[in-house]
Amino acid sequence: MQCMVWKRSDLLDILHIIIYSLTSFSTRCLTETFFDRALQRAEELDRHLREKGQPVGPLHGLPISLKDCFNVEGEASTIGFTSFIKNGPVKANSALVQILVDLGAVLYVKTNIPQTMMAADSHNYVFGRTVNPHRANLTAGGSSGGEGALIAMRGSVLGIGTDVAGSIRIPAICNGTFALRPSADRLPYAGQTSPSRGDLMGIKPCAGPLATSVRDLALLARLVTNVDPWQVDSGVTYSPWRDVKPKAVLRLGLIQEHADFPLHPPVLRTLTDAAERLRAAGHEIIPLESRAIRDACVLAFRMFAMDPAKTAFQHISASGEPIIPALASTALPHEYMKYGYAPLTLEGLYDLNEQRNHLKEEFRSLLVKSGVDAILTPGHQGTAQPHDVYGLPFHTVLWNVVDYPACIIPHGKAEQQADAKYIRDVEYKPPYDPAAVENAPCCVQVVGRHMREEELVQCTEIIAQVLAA
């Protein structure tokens, strides 16, 4: 990065491209824009380089986009609640934002999210609905959907999202980008505007990158972990980036689908194709089975419902705004009841954590006994779906429950003619509509071991190269 320095004119060109892209595609992916501030920052960086003869840091002059929940001093963070509009500009940067600034980055936009940040459609009544740049009838995903759409259009090459059930990965799945969900506490998370209360032994959210390449995912993770992020976030686990040697031959576990949630034809076809390509390239593919996909999702949503005050819904009630349609299909109390939710007692909290520990042990044992380097698995039953019907994130939230890092690699797209022979006489959830999802991006998800992001990105890079060949 240090040999490639952005100048003010370069950044101005990029901002013009962004504005053109957003006008052309009308994705509504942005929330806050501060282009003048970004240009001023670029001029300061240019001056520093001229006077000092060296860049501020390894991200010198690189424009980086941010999910709306990240606080940027002097900018608003409404996170899609109309009741938060009155809060005005925030007074301090989030921990990760401050690190990016110190590394030399140029911050220029924040991006759209769903109301409550707990849905797969980035839709709220402050900024509207973000649509998919590939097809406007499809969701851009959530809750980092604005990031996914912006990066898919190359309005950003590197952006930061958050993930507690798939919120980094789902937008990558829907928009066809690369993404990394790191282990919780590997990257700093503190200082954001949150829709909910603090953690109570539930599933920890994490921050992570979306990008146009695996290389850039690794770059961001390496730079941030190597600056001792505990200095700005007491919740970070001190774990500097390790150099690991890539393996010549990967041993990959393949978890294909849960019988209750059959894969849509485009996903089944592209996942099968990925496994065949990897096998042909000399890598080992080991079929694995787990019935935990549904159980983990039920457990996760019971944990998400632990707040007796339902704080996020209080923020909605405070303004009288309606609940977005996508939220009604994923996170409302009647859905918790459907999946076994009951008001939580102290005994119930113990029970939930015991269930999670059993799942963690199940997957630790599975990985150790199989000897796999990583797991190849779908990111969702389907591709990006029509608005408000994405459904529950079974294939992503599982890895939040056991806290395993995971990457998304775009691979192929939905094609009715090619997908026809993969149609089965099953009940697809959500419903499969081949015409609606034609040309939607497809992907594979690569899962690694807890706190082993270094090995994961090495495996992901090798897999991505094989799939791109």
UniProtKB/TrEMBL annotation:
Residue ranges occupied by any Amidase domain in the UniProt entry: 27-456
Domain of life: Eukaryota
Catalytic activity: a monocarboxylic acid amide + H2O = a monocarboxylate + NH4(+)
Pfam family, one: Amidase
Keyword Transferase: no
Keywords, ordered alphabetically: Hydrolase
Xref: InterPro entries: Amidase_CS, Amidase_dom, AS_sf
GO terms of molecular function: amidase activity
E.C. numbers: 3.5.1.4
Protein family per UniProt: Belongs to the amidase family.
Name under which the protein is recorded: amidase
Classification of source organism: Eukaryota, Fungi, Dikarya, Ascomycota, Pezizomycotina
